[in-house]
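Quick log. Single chain, no ligands specified.
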Amino acid sequence: MAGILNEIGTTLEMIKWEHSIFALPFALTAMLLAAGGLPGWRTVAWIVVAMVAARSAAMAFNRWADADLDAENPRTRNRAIPAGLLTKRFVLGFTCVAAAVFLVAAAELNRLTLELAPVALAVLLGYSYLKRVTQWSHLGLGLALGLAPTAAWIAVRGSLDARILVLTAAVTLWAGGFDVLYACQDYEHDRAAGLHSLPQASGLAVAFWAARGMHVAMLGLLVWFGRLFDFGMAGWLGVGAVGLLLGYEHSIVSPRDLRRLNAAFFTMNGVIAMVFLGFVSADVWMRR
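-> predicted structure:
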């Protein structure tokens, strides 16, 4: 029993489950807007369970699918599977359990969330193979995170409102942009291994400009989103705060200096998601 618990702990560390904070705040934002405030705690709880389980399944599957590639990459060869801390069989089993928990959570929310859950899983798991075939794999990761607000809206309403798709598009570009930056670390390895990415295909300078363009477009979509939902002052302050934080994120890294990339990727993106949720939450409550 202790051995299994240790393996689960190692798996959670490997998939960095705490980084569920990237997409979860956008899901909670959509949840609040869909409900016009806070829905029942049962709905909140199952949305959180579904989000964490879905991301855990996706990340564990990614580590399983990329185990051989990770072993060849100096940056990733110390990950749990190539380092021999976990077996591929155990990680695949963890993926299946997390996916099952996600499906249970979807079933507990409403019929439409359950019907669409397999589609969401296909996107989440399929992302792991995109870098083998296209340099635009970053948008696949973006979509995997971007589905979160649309899924949360459906979880509350049991139906789709086209307005929430604007937030899905914004999150897709936001996550896709920072994945472009993150992929710059593997520029040499991706070329040697025959993997596809925007940095590998176009060089670091072009990749940085592409990431900036995605994030500018993301801000434009947030402005559109704010207009669709009639943001008040707090909501617009949230959009402005996201713009300032993105600007800071891009100011601390460059094609010639990637030393602070982890700070930009992990710390700042978590802050951006939480700040947006905080301001929109305030806006929703002020208008009740």
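The chain has a mean pLDDT of 90.
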